Amino acid sequence: MIVLAFDTATDVATCALARGGEVLGERRSRAVQILEDAEGLLAGAGLGQRDLEGIVVGTGPGSYTGLRMGLVTARALALSLGIPVAGVSTLDALVAGRPRAVPLIDGRRGEVFTLTEGEPVCLRAEVLEVEPGREHVGDGALRYRELLEACGAVVPDDPDVHIPWARHHAALAHEFGPAEAAEPIYLRLPDAEKALRR
Question: What secondary structure, in 3-state letters, does 94-120 show?
């Protein structure tokens, strides 16, 4: 199965083209360049849009705007090409790239998105329970490196381990279905909605 996978939940967007577990190409850029990256990957592999058999999209948690851009792009491509979509958590993709590590996505406002007993949660950075000696990865780990390392955590220096690479999304995707079935993981209300409620 030839799939296009991408994640736009963080400041670094990634896009990968894979066939049956083999990564044909991968790029990192910004969310606004995902379609351009996809076209480049297809051209580089000698393929066209009609060769795609599935779309894999990162479902977050992360930036509200980034998530919406990714999901809308995935749905538009799936509908126009008549192919199924699979959603994969950005946190799960980080862990797939660095097994046993604690994934941390910068949630802004002093918060991080992480996994607690396998479930996504939003926590204040200072209340994270840190297991000394355990690796922490993601842009949240980089942002709160000093705090984490003071508690005994290990934050790798390799910048690549902190990126939710789309190749991991492609590898984790198992359940493909209708485009609208890929739902974003929102762990708090968008700022605009909070403002309206006030």
Answer: HHHHCCCCEECEECCCCEEEEEECCEE
3-state secondary structure of 24: strand
User: What pLDDT score was predicted for residue 195?
Assistant: 58
pTM, full prediction: 0.93
Classify burial at 129, counting beta carbons within 10 Å of its beta carbon; exposed 0-12, middle 13-18, buried 19 or more: exposed
Q: How many CB atoms lie within 10 A of CB 152?
A: 11
2-90+163-192 has which CATH code?
A: 3.30.420.40
CA–CA dist 99, 122 (Å, integer) = 21
Hey, CA dihedral for 187, 190, 191, 197, is it positive or negative?
negative
In the chain, residues under CATH classification 3.30.420.40 are 2-90+163-192
Contact between 74 and 104 (Cβ < 8 Å) = no
Contact 35, 73 (CB under 8 A): yes
What's the DSSP call for residue 162? Answer: G
Q: Which residue has the tokens 């051209």?
A: 43
pLDDT in tens, 142-186: 999 999 999 999 999 999 999 999 999 999 999 999 999 999 999
Does residue 164 contact residue 144 with C-beta atoms inside 8 Å? no
- Report the candidate in 62, 48, 67 with the shortest Cα–Cα distance to residue 4: 48
